[in-house]
């Protein structure tokens, strides 16, 4: 018995010393060891409100509900904003998720009616990005496509993504007043917000389909 206690005694002391050293390293020089073992309210709050990381494995699998439609994102825009839209499409398609974007001048079928192509693009896309600019507000086809998207899924959170650029808040379309929008001040930040919104919608879609 005394030999067994002799063998176990160094182990317990080493464990205690390692715990004590860990506590002292995580606490401030003026704090006690008992205070360092319990998290402060501010630390707990930060951990509780920190957003979960965006995980894309569930939307890239071969059996994902994502593949039920031809496109992940349909970009609704005015012709005068084509250069900016091409940058956005290049960004989204270059992401690890390889988003499938519908770009009207590139993906529309030659000879097809404009109305038919716009309706098909809306119906065959998971998300719709509305690039609302002064050109968008003047373009009747943009408004038509916006109304088609709202009629397709009026209450789908995250599916319609309004993006405001060079438009005052008072000019924000009344049809979209129930939706939060992305204000494009920094292009890189706005592109990332659009990407994250699309990912979250696709994740919710995949979870609801299982």
TrEMBL record:
Pfam families listed in its UniProt record: TIR_2
Residue span(s) of domain TIR: 69-205
GO molecular function: Toll-like receptor 2 binding; Toll-like receptor 4 binding
Superkingdom: Eukaryota
Positions of region (Disordered): 1-48
Chain intervals with Basic residues compositional bias: 1-11
One cellular component (GO) term of this entry: plasma membrane
Keywords: Receptor
GO biological process: positive regulation of canonical NF-kappaB signal transduction; positive regulation of chemokine (C-X-C motif) ligand 2 production; positive regulation of tumor necrosis factor production; toll-like receptor 4 signaling pathway
Biased composition (Low complexity): 17-44
Protein's name according to its UniProt entry: Toll/interleukin-1 receptor domain-containing adapter protein
Species assigned in the record: Mesitornis unicolor (brown roatelo)
